[in-house]
Each structure stands twice: as C-alpha cells, then as structure tokens.
C-alpha cells in the first residue's frame, strides 16, 4: 500500500479509497493509483511467478465451467487444455453447477494454488470479488457469458441474433405457435436467446404467448415434462425452439407419437444428423470458444495490458430437417 | 531420514538403501523401514494437511483422465466433483491424452499444489513414480484401468466378459464375419475387450481373421476410414463390434448405404435409442465409476490403511436393434 502511494504520489488513505471503490476520488487520481497498482502488482507477480515455478514445477491456469458433464463444456475444456499444453501449462478444471457459492470456492482453491490465470464461465452471481485476485496478478478471461461488474476479455457467440434466426426459420415454415423452452433466465445466454425468440415473433407481428414459454429447465427430464405439458394445452404449439443441448435432448425424448413438432435447437449434438428427421440446430463451436479464450488469457499472462476485448464468434445455422417439419394439424405455410 | 532410521532401529544408510530400492537388504529390514516411513509419513502428512488447510482454504483432490472431450470421462469427472463437493473438497481435473509424459506433468502439478489424493485413469505407461507421492501421503485410486506396478484401490468394469457377451450376441444372430474395431492395444480396457472378442469367437469354433481386426483407432475419422476399408474386402464383415464410444460414432458415420451391418458398441451414447436401427450397446456407468472411486479415495484420506481393493462394476447389455440387424447378403441365422 505504501509502495503504491509513493509511486502514485498520493497518501496511503487515498490508495485505500481508490482500491475500495469509495466515492470522492477524482478520475485522474484513480487512474494514477490504478497505474501504480498495476505496475507494482505486475512486478510482484513476476517475482511471484518465478518463485512459484521453482516451487511448483509446471505453471497452471484454471478453467471454471458450469457443468463438465455437458458435452459443450467438456469440449471447451479439452480445447483449453490443448492450448495450454502447447505452452507448457497444465489446466486445473472445476464446475460451478451455476452456484455462485461453489464458484467462489473453486476460484479460491485455484488462486490459493497459484494459477497464472483463470478462464471463467461466470455464474449469474456478481464477480466483483475477483478484483482482489486480479489486483494480485491473476489474469481473468470470461467465456460463454460476460461476468457482471468485471471488465475483462470476454468471448461469447451471437446468441440473440442466432436465436432470432432459428425462430424466424420456424415462422417461415408456417409455424405461429412456437414454444420457447429455456434454462434459468438469470443465465446471460438464456436471456439473450429468449430475447432473440421475442425479436423474431415481434418482427412477424406475433405477440408472445406466455403459455408457450418455459424457463428454469435444468435437466433432460424437466425439459421432457415441460414439453409434455405444453402438448396438452387446448391450443398447443406446432413447433419448439430449445435453448440448449440438454433441453433439446429432453424434448427429443418427449417427441415420438402423436405426430412430431417442428424443432430447432441451440447447440449441435453428436448423431443429430442421423435422427429421423435429422435435427436442425444453431451450432456453436466450443473448441473455438475455448481456444480463443485461452489465446487471450496467455497474451494477458505474457504482459498484454491493453483495454479489455469483447470477442463475438458467429454461430452456424445447420438446416437438416426437424425445423422444416410440420404436423398434419399444423397451420398452412405463411 | 534420521527419524525413520531411529524409529526402525537401523542406520540412515540402510534407510537410504531401502528407499532407493538397492539390493542386499533383508525383507525383514525393508518391512521395518517401510513401517517407520508410513508411520512418520502419516504423522507428517497430518500436520501438513492442517497447515495447508489454513493456507490454501478448501481442500482438493485431483482427477486425471484420458480425455475430457470424451463424454464418458466428462460424466465421470462431474460425478467425482459432486462427491467431493458433498465433502467440502474441490476437484482439480486434467487430461493426459493417454501420453505418459503429459500424465507425469499433470500429476506433478497437482501434487505440488497439495492435493489430498488423486483419482487416476492411468495411461499405458508405468506408474512406479507415484510411489514417491504416495510415501509423501498422497492417496491414489485408479479408475477405468489398473496402474502398472502400483498396488492401489482400483475400480473397473467387467470389460472382457461384457465384450464376449456382445460378440456372442452377434454370433447368435448368424454373423460369422465380425470385425473388431479398437483403440490402442496398449490401453488395458482395449486389450481386455479384444480378449473378450476372441473368447466369443473361440467358443463358437471360429478362428480370428486378422483382416477383420483393427487397433489404434484414436478418432472418429480413423474409425470411419477403417470400416470403409473393411467393406472393400473380397469377403467383408457382416457385423462390427466397436470397442468404445468414439469408434462407434465413427462407424455410424460410415454405415448408411449399401445395406448396414450388424453393430454392437461398447459404451452407450446419447440419442442411441433414437437411431434407425436403435443402437445395441454394452453400457457402463461413468457416474457409478467416478462415485465409487471418490468414495474409496475419501475413505483412504480419512485414514483407511487396509489392503488395496479391486472393485469390478457390472455393465449392462442393452439390446435395441442394431446388433440384431442382418444384411440381405448376410449368412442365414446359425
């Protein structure tokens, strides 16, 4: 603290106010303190890194995902591991199950074990607590979702536009009763995809029917049950947009007879092209997401202190058949 | 070293000879030294553990798998994480890509970061190097495969019997030209499954035809190419046994026209029951494997020093259609 105050030419009290985010500090002073913190923190971190490499052998980075059992995150993890391995780093991987408390525990365990950086799929909690780790020299990159209250490099896909395109595709095939089945709404990607669903309906002048919208589907059985319930409505949906792979799998379980619905899913699945009908999907590339995040992190670890970047990777819309499918009872093509 | 010598009533030189595995030490002396090492090592480890919990926060265990991108290991990892989380531990996960060198790096990085124990899917390399970590108090449990040269708790499935049953099933449906498509033969599970394939053929008096056997298939494209090549043989197979999920996916890519072959795969797949025909598989439960291994590890961490256990979990044979399928050109039912 004293070193920082001296380097910035301010009092230790001022440094304390800046670091704790207290009001009444001019932007110029805050910037001067920030520069000093970064400069000294960086030196300290450099020293710490050479010391730790001596003590701990191989350098590590940490990867914190929602759920390793989800193939999307498993592929992302492997991609990060391959990038790290090429650079002589080992990756520590952990899951949060989207629980902010578990996220904090995993991150605390990783930083106590002196990772050089973290790649984080943030939970819906707030992430201000990471500022302390970052001030201590741990680099952070977010992937799949941005963190709240934290300005760091972030790699996402075009969730909203891609979901809008998927629903527009169903509308173009004559569907007007299109259900939305989604995971927890407080997950950023889910809110974005739901916004895309609404955009598409609005562009076609169709009001959103809340009876056709289900959030909070966390598992395959929950998604299956949700679709089964929707199909008992007096005016049931003729098509479904599913907002992640787990929900798509659950909906596939509940299709079959009577005549299937139109279906477009967010996320591709192994064997999707071998189903009857083959599955139309929004395909995002977890390997590219993981690789891009790893590259950003390693450039930060190497000393890149430029302004945080937001990288948006484009999804692909893969038309295979299920989104072009209409029931016998479905509406005529619009 | 001196403490051990004193406790064992021998000279420091003798301790050194025992620890380094030098010849000319009587078994009785080696046992006495071993007891002293374990006793003192255990105390030291207890002290170290309370110290590390103070410094590092949450306790950790390490999980080292072949490939996180393989859904089988991803599900296993999540299962280990859930068991660990219930006990207040965080899991560090890493992949070896089945390379002994990468395995050593990952294990070294984990032990340097003071994991209380390791759950290991061992590569085909030797694992004597782990004895040093174990003498230092790190508990080790192997899962999926046994480690060579290391007597520790091990959780596997009935690979050989299950593969034998799968191939017997194909034989029972009239197939006599049955191909075996496998991963690297030096992976223990692959050698076991190939042995089961041979057992079944031998029990039916059918000699193994080397032209129908392919090892070393590490990826989906390699498996696809291998099957395509087999189908150009003058006397092609009428059925295929695939020895893991990745190979099954590759073979499914190469099926289609002309008329498909009989197929039984080792490992179940999401959507397997929705294929045409639905996929017949040997299903092993990665969640049970991971959970059992975690339970064994935590009982070791809690102080259980009983003799190493070998736990074999039974697979399920799931008959869905693809293994009962015969080509028009296939042999009559035997």
Automatic annotation (TrEMBL), chains A, B:
Protein name according to UniProt: LacI family transcriptional regulator
Keywords, comma-separated and alphabetical: DNA-binding, Transcription, Transcription regulation
Keyword Transcription regulation: yes
UniProt domain HTH lacI-type: residue ranges: 1-53
Keyword Secreted: no
Organism domain of life: Bacteria
InterPro entries according to UniProt: HTH_LacI, LacI/GalR-like_sensor, Lambda_DNA-bd_dom_sf, Peripla_BP_I
